[in-house]
Amino acid sequence: MHKVIKFIFVMAMFAYANMVNAQLNVFTCEPEWASLAKELGGEKIKVFSATTGLQDPHHIQARPSLLARARRADLLVCTGAELEIGWLPILLRKTANAEIQPGKPGNLMVTEYLSLKDKPDRLDRREGDMHAEGNPHVQTSPYNISKIALILLKRLQQIDAGNAAVYQNNYDDFIQRWQRAIARWEEEASVLRGKSLIVYHRNWGYMTDWLGLNVVAVIEPRPGIPPSSAYLSKIIKQMEVSPAKMIIHAAHQPAKASDWLSSKLAIKKVQLPFTVGGSKTAHDLFSLFDETIQLLVSGLQ
Amino acid sequence: MSGNVLSETFDQQGIQQLEQRVAQLEAGALPNADNAFNPAISIILDGRYANFDDNSEGYHLPGFQLGGEAGVGETGFSLGHTEITASSNIDNYFFGKMTLAIAEHEGETEIELEEAFLQTLGLGSGVTLTLGRFFSDFGYLNKQHPHAWDFADAPLVYRAMMGNHLIDDGVQFLYLADSDMFLQFGAEAFRGSRFPAGGEQDNIGAWTAFVEFGDDIDDSNSWQAGISHWRADNIHREGGHGHDHGGGTAETPVFIGESNMSALDLVYKWAPNGNPVNKNFKLQFEYILRDEQGDVELEGSDPLESTSYDGEQTGWYLQGVYQFARQWRTGLRYDALSSDNRASDESVLEAAGLHDEGHDPRRISAMLEWVPTEFSRIRLQFNRDESTLVANNQWFVQYTVSMGSHGAHQF
Prior knowledge:
Strand order of the largest sheet of chain B: 1-3-4-5-6-7-8-9-10-11-12-13-14-16-17-18
Strand order of the largest sheet of chain A: 2-1-3-4
Number of domains of chain A: 2
CATH superfamily of chain B: Porin
Radius of gyration of chain B: 26 Å
Distance between the termini of chain B: 73 Å
Number of strands of chain B: 18
Shape of chain B: globular
CATH topology of chain B: Porin
CATH class of chain B: Mainly Beta
CATH architecture of chain B: Beta Barrel
Oligomer: heterodimer
Order of helices and strands of chain A: HEHEHEHEHHEHEHEHEH
Distance between the termini of chain A: 80 Å
Strand content of chain B: over 45%
CATH class of the largest domain in chain A: Alpha Beta
Shape of chain A: elongated
């Protein structure tokens, strides 16, 4: 009997010690928010990302591993604006995790804090994959990342007040490095200003605005709809009048049409990482933008 | 002078109000108050053209008593289930969903209430309760609506044992374990008046228990497995196909007794780097074993013919679906059933259609789908159907589209 009580006591101590040292579980829908969370949370948090940089975050399923991870999450960080509409609502319902339900501090939808571009004037599924609330691919501008860093800091401090000072320090450090990096990227990218390009899918709006790039054609006739050959020859015709410098597309998008067009027009095709993990080099937010700018500049040559 | 200042202030206020209103309108922040909380509504349209070599009526599976919506369906042009679904958060405690299926049976339009349930929202500790009418978590495919199936018809084992779908009124308890691997336990208690249970019940007429687990192998591969059990002790089940003895009056087989079903399901999915948009593969397997004990009567016979009955039936299917291009999918399915039903009076067993007639039902199906977008699909399917004694070649051309709110990407 004595031994049993002793055993229970020891186990309880272990459990308590575990709770005290417990890291905050952060579940992110996209890898860019996982990377940002790591910058601010450091060793105080454990981060899991539902998608990698090689996946289209709209098209994944609420698979078993995501249910298990979201069940344990203290904070959910997702893009919102209907990007995850196919799987996040059902995931949230099925996990029964009260802390990460909409309206709770543990539920952060970053697009609620940004003003979105390309909000459609008219909602009609004839127009392809519509995002009624606007373009959700906000991570392509570093200024959006700065804004979300501050929002994420506040949430982390709210949920885990005990480590508020740690998060603040990490944030201060991150934002300083980030601002220096933005200045560097802008200098490197100055040659890109005013240049014309073709995109595969209209998901680069925040980046093209930031760098002053000019999107003259989109390979997908409508968002999510692959191009027909007739549509591609229309683009070729259009290029005779107003030529573009390069074609850009994301790692998770099909390369075939971009490759074909690139050889026909004899202009470079640049595959950009689009988000963290979209290429081997883009392993965090800094390397993501380093590589993106470098690839764009090399695309001019 | 003072008049000027006043009108200037007024103008500025007016302009500010106008700007605010424009901003609100642009943000879409001024919906009609009555409609602001409308549930999400979606409508599924499903239609088909079917052509069978063998068109004879009175489809029956040797060794099985059919019920629910089981059958081969109609030939020629017909509509499947037209579904209307409304769902919404009710408050911060409950989510609610209702699905109406509109279908035509023998020239009459019928509206069936397929689902009407509420479900707790974020109860905590991994617990979710569901109340009302819902699709049982028994097996894997049972949770899916017909429009989400990969083939135009249900697997034979679902047709034979569950009338295509195990739907009932009751309560479900789900517990999602706190572990890295997906592990979920559940139990359901049902009224038990619907096929494959049946009869008047004044308490819990049927219940289930199940466990589901699954994980990712890596970014590209994931799987899920489940074991489930369904049981009903006090069944009075009418239905199926009684052989006409030539006396003119139709006899309806009735099963009175208890039934146990156990299922094993396995699902494996692959997509390169976990991105299923252009290429993906799904392998799905279910095996169901059923054991029934009681009596079988032929209602309408005079004098009443009856026999003691001990039924043992198994069924399984294996299907693979491969998406080989952005808008194209193809799939293969193999179905098999077998029964070993015993009775004290074999002639009653035969008359009730529960004798296997020396034939194990089986079927092989192939399909090709064109899926232009997430919201529409056109399917061509061929069945070599040997579920009855006469082999039948069946062709289907089917469209399924969804309108309204975005559907869920379930695993």
